[in-house]
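Let's study today's protein:

:::
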Amino acid sequence: MSSSSDMSSQQRIAKVRTVVMQAGEDLRARYPILKHQNFIGASILAFAWMGMIGTALAFYLGYLSVWMTIPLIAIFASLTHELEHDLIHYMYFKKTPWAHHLMLALVWLARPNTISPWARRRLHLHHHKYSGTEHDLEERGISNGMPWGIRRVLVISDQLMSVYLRPIQMFKMIELFLEKQPEKERFIARLSNILGFLPLSIMYYGLCYLFVVYHGANMLAPVFGYEMLWSQGILDIMPWVNLLAVIWIFPNYLRSFCLQFVSSNMHYYGDIDPRDVIKQTQVLNPWWLMPFQLFCCNFGSTHAIHHFVVKEPFYIRQMTAKTAHKVMQEVGVRFNDIGTFRRMNRWNDIKAK
């Protein structure tokens, strides 16, 4: 057999796919329960929701502090993100539409600070076709390719900041995305991007901004010698807003920041061939990223595997990661290329102008 250095890019990609798919098949042969994919997906979703609800009740009844509640719920919510990603690729209940769409609705309710999963499906499948290019709206929307600074940090932390801080650039990115859509589907794609935040995400951000404005004004007003006079309606709903902030808003801020920080830096941008899967992503799992990985299901270590073998659910990727990493390293996938932070996610060094 020829060594990996003698292979073309497509041969290397095929080698990784063969090894990873075989590892998955071997795992299912060893543990037959893994063949029941629908059952496992539904069970993980039920576990995540029970964990979130149980933690929220423990906080409400006074058994958990704020500082325990937020990270615990964020960890459970991170499972629902991985399920959403699998659902986008029709890995659960493909032949049972009602169950499939119920799962999509529940994963969105668990983590509402994102575009709806039905709208995201189009963005994500497009991402696989045009990963690392200017047409990749999904990754560019979460800061991939941006220079580091306060603006990039804000875009990572809040999806709406991507629009607030760069409206003209976002308009151009959406137009580039639409340019690659079939002509008959462009209107639906545009409408999907506009309406994809309704209703859950708008509710989420409305509550979030109400919490920030209320408490921010109460802290700042006395500094300038004023006292805030709120309407009785606002005063009546704030205890509920405060509760939702702890059990719904802040856990998802923590979860999404960690995920988007890892994702936007493990994907390459700007100087790669989108057909070359080897250069689309790196494995990003240095020790200092462990706190981030905790809140995004070890995404930095396993997501690159998904670019080679799309149809494996996230829990299989976790279980076959050691085998996958070995062959990926052999064919030239990068591991812990920290220089990507300096290069604005380019594969090569940025040439001085």
Summary: The radius of gyration is 22 Å. The mean pLDDT is 95. Residues 218 and 229 are 9 Å apart (CA to CA).
